């Protein structure tokens, strides 16, 4: 399947964004650890969240989390403390080649019973849960924050709690803080005790009603559309976002201000989700340099947006892009060349575009590599590139299932081949 996308002449629409996948997945694990009966409200309807919901509800012997990287990491830790239960945790073929040894080793050091069903260091895993002691644990701070969050969330269930010391450079710190925020709201005592250390007390979670806010990551694609818009009167309104959100990708509003997008929050009680209005300011920087170490999932959006706006860039902090659904650095270099832009990789952690162009190849279409963010980030480029085609567009179901419907409501024409 492939979609060819034609952009509208005018953008003026109110969009109800999906619920935050990041918050939903954390809230579900903590809800389960609390022994709760009140399911969190406004849960994401994306694939990653659905597999966790089904796993917690059905608890089959073999739990298939499909392509859900977050689900694989969070469920690995959760099943390790589920006393008296044994399960096999598996996923797609790509998931079976995504490393998980660091998390498994960390959990084993706490006493977890985990074995590899297939290749060492990779899923599937056989996990037999039991009550773990806890205590001091050291892991590198430059690994995926999902490993760190998985460990933190089980901390209150450990006999001695958890003292987690992060060595070296700490990346994606906002995602760690998001985890701590959700934990606090379920009654845990977990705090940074030093610049590199988090203390989690052995205090059980408390069941409570919990409302999931909408997704700042999903908002980033609408910001991209507004930046690429060439109509001064265009306006996009996004529902359900929170000012002061703990979501790491809420930084998108500040970065896009550098590309000429102005953000206005509706008037409401502090902390309550509201409607955000996006308009063009008409002013953007001539070159963008940014370190995405704290928000790597935004990188694809800004790579596409800046190049199409003819804004050279140098983006750093991209080391985790190589272990996502695909090697996103390699994928971006290849697919941007199809649009006529020649990117360079810098030491595996950087992407650079200095304005070099090549002959485009639009006929081939943009490949998505089973990676939702490739489709999500490239589609807005239709505002500047006629005949833009996305191959295998259904991958958006991983985080934003209604994306194509929302584009149609906003006036985009999408034809299927």
Would you write up a description of this structure?
It contains twelve helices and 19 strands. It has helices at 21-33, 47-58, 69-80, 101-109, 145-154, 173-185, 216-228, 252-257, 299-308, 328-338, 372-378, 403-409, and strands spanning 2-6, 12-16, 62-64, 86-90, 113-116, 125-128, 135-140, 162-167, 190-194, 197-200, 235-241, 261-265, 274-280, 288-291, 313-316, 344-346, 350-353, 388-391, 413-416. Helix 4 runs parallel beside helix 5 and helix 5 (145-154) packs parallel to helix 6. The termini are close together.
Overall number of strands: 19
Estimate the helix proportion, in percent.
25-40%
Mean pLDDT: 94
Radius of gyration: 21 Å
What separation lies between the terminal Cα atoms?
6 Å
Biggest sheet details: 4 strands, mixed
Unreliable residue stretches? none
Which class best fits the helix and strand makeup? alpha+beta
The number of helical elements comes to 12
What strand line-up does the widest sheet have? Answer: 2-11-13-12
Q: Globular, elongated, flat, extended or rod-shaped: what is the shape? A: globular
């Amino acid at each position: 399947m492939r979609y060819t996308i034609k952009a509208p002449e005018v953008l003026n629409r109110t969009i109800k964004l999906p619920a935050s996948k990041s918050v939903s997945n954390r809230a579900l694990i903590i809800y389960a650890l609390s022994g709760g009966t009140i399911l969190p409200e406004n849960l994401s309807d994306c694939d990653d969240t659905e597999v966790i919901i089904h796993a917690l509800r059905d608890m089959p012997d073999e739990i298939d989390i499909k392509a859900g990287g977050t689900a694989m990491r969070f469920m690995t830790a959760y099943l390790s403390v589920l006393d008296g239960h044994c399960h096999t945790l598996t996923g797609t073929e790509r998931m079976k080649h995504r490393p998980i040894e660091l998390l498994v080793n960390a959990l084993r050091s706490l006493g977890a019973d985990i074995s590899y069903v297939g290749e060492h260091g990779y899923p599937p895993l056989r996990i037999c849960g039991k009550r773990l002691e806890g205590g001091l644990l050291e892991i590198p701070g430059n690994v995926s924050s999902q490993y760190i969050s998985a460990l933190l969330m089980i901390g209150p269930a450990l006999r001695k709690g958890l003292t987690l010391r992060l060595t070296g450079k700490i990346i994606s710190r906002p995602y760690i803080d998001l985890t701590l925020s959700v934990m606090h709201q379920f009654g845990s005592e977990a705090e940074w005790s030093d610049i590199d250390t988090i203390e989690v007390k052995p205090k059980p979670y408390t069941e409570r009603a919990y409302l999931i806010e909408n997704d700042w990551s999903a908002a980033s694609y609408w910001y991209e559309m507004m930046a690429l818009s060439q109509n001064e009167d265009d306006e996009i309104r996004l529902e359900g976002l929170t000012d002061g959100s703990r979501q790491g990708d809420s930084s998108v509003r500040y970065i896009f201000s550098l590309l000429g997008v102005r953000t206005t929050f509706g008037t409401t009680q502090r902390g309550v989700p509201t409607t955000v209005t996006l308009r063009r300011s008409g002013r953007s920087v001539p070159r963008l340099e940014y370190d995405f170490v704290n928000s790597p999932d935004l990188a694809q959006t800004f790579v596409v947006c800046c190049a199409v706006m003819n804004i050279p860039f140098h983006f750093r902090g991209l080391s985790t892009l190589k272990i996502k659904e695909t090697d996103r650095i390699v994928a971006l270099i290849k697919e941007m060349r199809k649009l006529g832009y020649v990117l360079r990789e810098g030491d595996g952690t950087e992407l650079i575009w200095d304005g070099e162009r090549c002959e485009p190849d639009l006929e081939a279409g943009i490949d998505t590599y089973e990676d939702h963010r490739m489709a999500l980030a490239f589609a807005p480029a239709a505002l500047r590139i006629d005949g833009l085609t996305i191959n295998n567009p259904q991958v958006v179901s991983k985080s934003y299932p209604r994306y194509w419907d929302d584009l149609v409501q906003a006036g985009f024409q999408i034809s299927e081949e």
